[in-house]
Amino acid sequence: MEKTDWRTAVRAHAEDSVCIDIYVEPGASSQRIGPYDPWRQRVKVSVGSPAHDGKANREVIRAISGLLDVPVANVRILRGATTRRKTLRVDGIGLEAVIAALSETLEGEGDVPA
Fold first, then answer.
1. pTM for the predicted model, two decimal places
2. Does residue 2 come out as left (phi exceeding 0), alpha (psi in the -120 to 50 range) or beta?
3. Predicted local distance difference test score (pLDDT) of residue 110
4. Which of 9, 31, 42, 95 could connect to 23 by a Cys-Cys bridge, CB 3.0–4.6 Å?
5. Rounded distance, CA 61 to CA 30, Å?
6. Euclidean distance between CA atoms 63 and 113, whole angstroms
7. Which residues on adjacent β-strands are paired with residue 18?
8. Number of structural domains in the chain
9. Listed residue (106, 107, 72) closest to 90, CA to CA
10. Contact, 75 vs 93, CB < 8 A?
11. Is residue 88 part of a domain?
12. Which whole number is the average pLDDT over 14-35?
C-alpha cells in the first residue's frame, strides 16, 4: 500500500480488534470523519468539543463507535491521549468490517458527517 492509501492507517490488532491511526481537529464547526491525511498517514476526525478535560477525546470515541456500530466501551485510546495524533483500539470488530465502514466514509461522495 502506498502512503496515499488510507488503509495504511488501519490494521488488525488481535482476532477481533483493530487499531486506527487518527488525527484529531478539536473545536471544529462540525463533527466529521475524513478525509485521510497522507502526510500524517492518519484519518482526520473533526469534533466540536475543545481539547480540554478530555472532552474532544470522548467525542472522538463516540464518533468512531457510531461509525463502526460498536459500544463506546469497545473504543479506547492506545496512544496519544494528550496529542492530536492518536491510535485507537476498537474491540469486537474485524479488520474487514472497519475497512468497509471507512470505505463508505472516505471513498463515497465526499466526507460523511460522524
1. 0.90
2. beta
3. 41
4. 42
5. 15
6. 9
7. 12, 90
8. 1
9. 72
10. no
11. yes
12. 94
Residue 67 CB contacts under 8 Å (≥ 6 apart), including other chains: 33, 101, 102, 105, 114
Task: Decide: residue 74, CB within 10 A, 0-12 exposed, 13-18 middle, 19+ buried.
Answer: middle
Task: Give residue 113's pLDDT band: very low, low, confident or very high (50, 70, 90).
Answer: very low
Domain that holds residue 76: 6-113
Return the amino acid letter for 31: Q
Question: Angle 55-68/95-107 helices, nearest 10 degrees?
Answer: 100
Cα(108)–Cα(51) distance, integer angstroms: 29
Each residue's pLDDT tens digit, 34-90: 999 999 999 999 999 999 999 999 999 999 999 999 999 999 999 999 999 999 999
| Cα–Cα distance measured from residue 14 to residue 73, given in angstroms and rounded to the nearest whole number | 17
The answer to whether the CB of 28 falls within 8 A of the CB of 48 is yes
Q: How confident is the model at residue 22 (pLDDT cuts 50, 70, 90)?
A: very high
For residue 28 the three cell numbers come to: 471544529
Position 111 pLDDT exceeds 50 = no
Q: Is residue 1 part of a domain?
A: no
Alpha carbons 74 and 37: distance in angstroms, whole number: 25
